[in-house]
Design brief:
This protein is an all-alpha fold. It has five helices and no strands. It is elongated and about 150 Å long.
């Protein structure tokens, strides 16, 4: 009977766990980038060198404090552990940088495509304006046309005047 009370029913969802560990990948990524940046600095190399020299000096000179005798197995274990964590953290930081570079590249491509489209549009507009300007009457063209019309008008007036004079002479000549 106690088995039946502790057995979970399959038709009901599980109750939420009390101690659920939440994992924020963004926060972990930021932390790994900070560590990777620090590992790649001269400051880290300086302090790591000071640490190793101190470790070896204490283990070689202080007989009572020799917690890691000559082959320095514990120091090698510490280096191996540090390297086993450093390499994946550096790779994670590089992957995050690659992701940022990819997003930046996509934005640059989109911006370049928009700029090209804008440039093409402006080129078409300029071509249309040039064609429109080519069809617009210029001052010189209008002056020439007006001069031609004046000449035709004066020619028509003189022709009309000659006709009138002929018409006026013709009745007199007939009488």
């Amino acid at each position: 009977m106690p088995e039946l009370l502790t057995r979970r029913r399959l038709d009901q969802p599980r109750p939420p766990h009390r101690f659920r560990l939440t994992f924020d990948p963004e926060l972990f990524g930021q932390l790994s980038e900070r560590i990777a940046r620090f590992i790649g600095t001269g400051k880290f190399l300086f302090w790591m060198t000071v640490f190793v020299i101190t470790w070896i000096a204490i283990n070689l000179s202080a007989v009572g404090l020799q917690w890691d005798p000559y082959p320095f197995i514990l120091l090698n274990l510490a280096f191996s552990t540090q390297a086993s964590y450093a390499a994946p953290l550096i790779l994670l930081a590089q992957n995050r940088q690659d992701d940022r570079d990819r997003v930046s590249l996509e934005e640059d491509r989109a911006r370049a495509a928009q700029t090209k489209a804008d440039t093409d549009y402006l080129a078409r507009e300029l071509a249309a304006l040039r064609l429109a300007i080519g069809e617009v009457a210029t001052r010189d063209y209008l002056r020439g046309e007006l001069d031609r019309l004046r000449e035709e008008l004066s020619g028509l007036r003189s022709a009309a005047g000659r006709r009138r004079s002929r018409a006026a002479r013709t009745p007199d000549d007939q009488a």
